[in-house]
Amino acid sequence: MCNTCGCNVTDGNRHLLSIPHQQKSVTAITVLSNLLKHNDQQADQNRASIESHGVLAINLMSSPGSGKTALLEATIQKLKHKLSIAVIEGDLETENDADRIRAQGVQAYQITTGTACHLDAHLIQQALTHIRLDEIDVLFIENVGNLVCPASFDLGHHRNVTLLSVTEGDDKPAKYPVMFRASDVMLITKTDLLPYLGDFSVEKAIRYQHELASQAPVLALSSRSGEGFDAWLQWLEQEVSQHKIRIQQQQSIKPTIQAEGQQLHQQEPVRFRPVARA
Amino acid sequence: MHELSLCADLMDQVTALAKTHQAEKVVRIVVKIGPLAGVEPHLLESAFTISCAGTLAEEAEFITESLPIRVLCNVCAAETEAPRSNHLLCGECASANTQLLSGDELILAQVELLN
After folding, report:
1. Residue B34 sits in a domain of what CATH number?
2. Alpha-carbon gap, residue A90 to A81, rounded angstroms
3. Antiparallel, parallel or unpaired: β A218-220 and A107-112
4. What is the CATH code of the structural domain delimited by A39-262?
5. CB-CB under 8 Å, A27 with B13
6. How many independent structural domains does chain B possess?
7. Would the CB atoms of A152 and B71 count as touching at under 8 Å?
8. Contact list, A179 vs chain B (CB under 8 Å)
């Protein structure tokens, strides 16, 4: 024991220590830590829990009213003999969307956020306790309808699906780049309405998406008429089978954007750098 | 409008650092925000004035630093600055096969503590 390194301080005598009066100094600490740290830690736990049941989790993001719930209803109907699906619904109020999903005969849990404009990893953690993961292949998380905030929060899912309905205008990817850059697949929905609009160009929407340097496929479909729906089902089934293989190999994936971000901002060591201050 | 919840996370991290270093108070906080982070610097500043009340950081100077959006082209290997957040193509060859080098940061970069 010595008086140099502090090894003589124990839990029993620590309270007797008084911090010696020193000249006041300012210490600058370089931290470089992600401000979404707590959310991201919870998201990683959610992902591990979802993967332990072999389930693929998909986050649906779009404006309110772009057809997320209708997409899910049609998807459940068309795949009910192939895949077992459950849905976590996010809305500010009402149980309406979860009721619509339950009417299709599958598990649904409604998160009502009150005033919050997005779902986060902690809300999903609570919702997961209401879903029987061992009975399903795919968990859809229908985020709060909003083209801004949901893009910033990792929920512990594997893939981001963004929807752009034709009534919203073809320049949405240019107006909301943070959201549409997060796409792993982008769906142009309600194409059955195209003949009544005249000013929505699918090509332009694809071009704006392309300018975000997005490699995500863009699929145009109508949940009502079924036009273009097969390409979406094919994408989904392919993701599910690839996921099963990854699970067997004990590999995990994050949505493309989160994986890139993590690679880009690998935690740098914390440094301490005292600076002189007048 | 999730700046207030982000600020709560920020305050947790800052006060934890202050405790670790037995600081009397926090003098300065520097946060780096890229245009693709989805966070408005001035909204984060407003949120900070609410979140810091009654904490060691009550009188701290709050600095937000913006970062340029830079992309690396996977085709021609050029490193270019994107002109705006909805145009992330290579500035040399216009390829969409680029990867982000900076611009999506949301980082607590530096904290100055008074001991």
Report:
1. 3.30.2320.50
2. 26
3. unpaired
4. 3.40.50.300
5. no
6. 1
7. no
8. 38
pLDDT grade for A23, boundaries at 50, 70 and 90: low
Express each pLDDT in A24-63 by its tens digit: 788 888 888 888 888 999 999 999 999 999 999 999 999 9
Residue identified by tokens 């935690």 is A267
Contact A211 B111 (CB under 8 A): no
Mention every residue, 6+ apart, whose C-beta is less than 8 A from residue A145: A62, A63, A64, A65, A66, A68, A91
Nearest chain B residue to A265 by CA: give it: B105
Q: Which of A74, A58, A65 is nearest to A166 (CA)?
A: A65
- Whether A26 sits inside 8 A of B105 (CB atoms) is no
Residues of B with CB below 8 A from A117's CB?
A: 1-2
> Which residues constitute the domain of residue B15?
3-67+102-114
Of B28, B89, B110, the CB nearest to A213: B89
Chain A hits for B112, CB-CB cut-off 8 Å, are: 26-29, 275
Instruction: Spell out the alpha helix ranges (H) of chain B.
Output: 3-20, 41-51
Domain assignments of chain A as residue spans, ordered by start: 39-262
DSSP state, residue A19: P
Coil, strand or helix at B52: coil
> How close B91 gets to chain A, by Cα (Å)?
11
- Please write the tens of the pLDDT for every residue from B32-85: 999 999 888 998 999 999 899 999 999 999 999 999 999 999 999 999 999 999
